Amino acid sequence: MPTREDKISSSFGVILRKSVIIMHFKLIIGCVVLFLFSCKKHKDLYPDTAIGGHACAGLHISSSNYHDNSLEAYKYARSFEQLALIEVDAQLSLDGTLWLFHDAELDVESTGTGAVPQKNDAYLSGINYSSLEKERVIRLSDLPADLKGIRLIIDLKESDGTDNGLIDSTKLIDALKEAKQYFYNGDLALVTNTRRFIPTIKGLGFRVYYNVVNALQFWSYSTAFIVDGAIFRNSDIAVSDVNSLKSLGKEVIIYDVRSPNGIRSALEKIPHYLLTDDIKATLIEKYK
């Protein structure tokens, strides 16, 4: 016969098991609620627009963690899994190497002087940005070769550093061939202002975008039908321009957005891609 102590112990065990079951049930319910809340919180309000980083993680942003077009800015941008593309600004050196730098003159935001196309690789290798972190000015090939599924957009500055001259065409094509061989597990795109060598660049496997003001300017170019689309400054483009290009199968990229209002106005135009200067603020607007 069970003793009184055995009965008490058995009853306590039953109560304990019930408590554990109730606790587990509450935990499961809590997880379900948290999951549903998380889904609701992160609903994609603009599913037809993918987000990218402008000049890696923002151009001319005083509050940015790192200088635009630096390796540090690129790695920071890649830390956001939601990004589908990253844009960089590239210029060709005297040695035919693509270097990441936005401005026409080095002394604007770096320790160098003159223009990138007028300098050799040895000189450019010793230059740093005049920023808090003093990031190094880098080659395109200093970026990780594995793109991990994203699109890398190269905004090519085609000036040779003089008032009206353009970079050497042979050196340019050779540099683009090297880039195509270097990067993998993603795709490459080129932004051009001069519309030179479009068939050749397309033949290398690059997507090509025109940097234009509006749809009318885009369609005025004879090679518009063979490029992939256009990139527009947000303040220049209207919804009608976006729809005009979309209707004929062209991709639309909008850039130059910084404030929450600017970000929302760009998203509401529903481009294929938005290159933002504030990644966090843009993701907040997109996922609510």
Q: Unreliable segments (pLDDT under 50, ≥5 consecutive)?
A: 29-40
Beta content comes to: 15-25%
CATH architecture of the largest domain: Alpha-Beta Barrel
CATH secondary-structure class of the largest domain: Alpha Beta
Total discrete domains:
2
Overall mean pLDDT: 89
Which structural class do you get from the secondary structure elements? Answer: alpha/beta
Q: Please tell me how large the radius of gyration is.
A: 26 Å
Rough shape? globular
The helical percent reads: 25-40%
**Oligomer designation:** single chain
Distance from first to last alpha carbon:
64 Å
User: Can you summarize the main beta sheet?
Assistant: 8 strands, parallel, barrel
CATH fold label of the largest domain: TIM Barrel
- Superfamily (CATH H level) name of the largest domain: Phosphatidylinositol (PI) phosphodiesterase
Q: What strand line-up does the widest sheet have?
A: 1-2-4-5-6-7-8-9
Number of helices: 9
Instruction: Give the number of DSSP strands.
Output: 9
Pfam family, one: GDPD
Transmembrane segments: 20-37
InterPro entries: GP_PDE_dom, PLC-like_Pdiesterase_TIM-brl
GO molecular function, one term: phosphoric diester hydrolase activity
